[in-house]
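#structure-requests
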Amino acid sequence: MSIDTRLAEARAGLQRIEAADVPSEIAAGAVLVDIRPAAQRAAEGDVPGALVIERNVLEWRLDPASDARIPEAGSADTRWLILCSEGYASSLAAASLQAVGLARATDVVGGFQAMRAAGVA
């Protein structure tokens, strides 16, 4: 299977969020999670209020059943908004979160770049 096919499959199961809608999602209780690596965040900039959890530990930190979960991961009903630089890795990550039972996980269309262009990052 090609990565393009895998990405399309991942996105088919997501109700992706437009960058301009991120503030209203957060106001409604969603949690924005920035999965960009440290070097990328340093080059592009941080997102105020976002939880920073690098991709390699994401599932362990957000699964309420995990011994390595963060305090915010208390419920499988949490609305997780996953953010990467351009909205590719975040789609795969959100689909992975759904696969471990976090059904409300999704990602931001266009990622950090779209949020910056929309003036919300």
